[in-house]
Specification:
Elements (H helix, E strand, L loop, with lengths): L11 H6 L8 H21 L3 H16 L7 H8 L2 H9 L37 E9 L10 E5 L21 E5 L5 E7 L4 E2 L5 H8 L5 E2 L2 E8 L2 E10 L18 E2 L2 E2 L7 E4 L2 E2 L7
Parallel strand pairs: 1-11, 1-12, 8-9
Antiparallel strand pairs: 1-4, 2-3, 2-7, 5-6, 7-8, 10-11
This protein binds fe (ii) ion.
Fe (ii) ion binds next to strand 7.
């Protein structure tokens, strides 16, 4: 009789991975074999108890049950564990001088109105006004024409329009601008405020148990696209914000922190200037 290697504590990884069929897609085989290895190593390293396993199952169940078209608790989990930023870092190893990426976040909406340069995107009249200016450049410092700049931020209460339908005007603090030959952009929004990520679900509970807060430092979102260049998903962070060093989703990079300067001394009208540098996609 052929010897059968039944499942044991010692051979658990091999026992599971040996079941994969011959025809399994090679990349899926690589990913799953590694996942099983790390998962089993983790269970063995911490000596996971049955009660802890039940807590984990319940946590993941509640995380899934909270997800719908408006709420994505699993992305929040990925964000707060640093996985979203890590995957983004692996995918965007850009040369020095190029604008760095950060998290996309859950509040982007396709179809925001395309506006002439100089337009104001704040429609609720709340908050401290801020004029955003700068250029979209290539790595040689040459202006890029036809770059599409999609911007969005919270309002001065710390909520995006989609979080308060009926309360905020549609497209409040959102707009799309397309650069001309000089690569310049120019629009008026607000000086954004820091806000907590949704913390009334399992991820918020996890943060509390870990002694972490749910706050993100104030930021303006930017999505830059152009047919000839790699897409940039990034933010401008407000210099001096209390949460720059402890962003709940690890999105802050030093190069993305921008000084918001008062238009005149003691003023509550602000200016923020930043250039964006796009790179060609890696050739395949
Ligand atoms: Fe945001």
């Amino acid at each position: 009789m052929p010897r059968i290697d039944y499942f044991t504590e010692a051979n658990s990884v091999e026992a599971v991975n040996a079941r994969m069929g011959e025809a399994t897609d090679p990349r899926l085989r690589e990913v799953m074999a590694s996942l099983v290895r790390h998962l089993h190593d983790f269970v063995k390293e911490v000596g996971l108890t049955q009660a802890e396993w039940e807590v984990a199952i319940d946590f993941l169940t509640r995380t899934g049950q909270l997800c719908d078209a408006q709420r994505q608790e699993f992305i929040l989990l990925s964000d707060t564990l640093g996985v979203s930023m890590l995957v983004d870092a692996l995918a965007h190893r850009r040369p020095a001088g190029a604008t760095e990426n950060t998290v996309f976040g859950p509040f982007h909406v396709d179809g925001a109105p395309e506006l002439p340069m100089g337009s104001c995107i704040s429609l609720d009249g709340k908050g401290e006004s801020c004029r955003y200016t700068g250029r979209v450049l290539d790595l040689d410092g040459q202006p890029i024409a036809g770059a599409r700049i999609d911007v969005w931020s919270d309002n001065s209460d710390g909520f995006y329009d989609v979080q308060q339908p009926g309360q905020q005007p549609t497209w409040n603090n959102r707009g799309v601008f397309v650069t001309g030959p000089d690569g310049r952009y120019d629009f008026v929004g607000i000086k954004p405020v820091s806000y907590p990520i949704p913390d009334d679900g399992p991820v918020g509970h996890m943060l509390t148990r870990l002694g972490r807060h749910p706050w993100r430092p104030a930021h303006m979102h930017f999505l830059l696209t152009h047919p000839d260049y790699e897409r940039i998903v990034t933010h401008l962070f407000v210099a001096g914000d209390d949460y720059l060093a402890s962003d709940a989703v690890f999105g802050v990079k030093a190069s993305l922190i921008v000084a918001y300067r008062p238009v005149s001394q003691g003023d509550t009208e602000w200016e923020a200037a930043a250039d964006f540098v796009m790179v060609k996609p890696p050739s395949r």
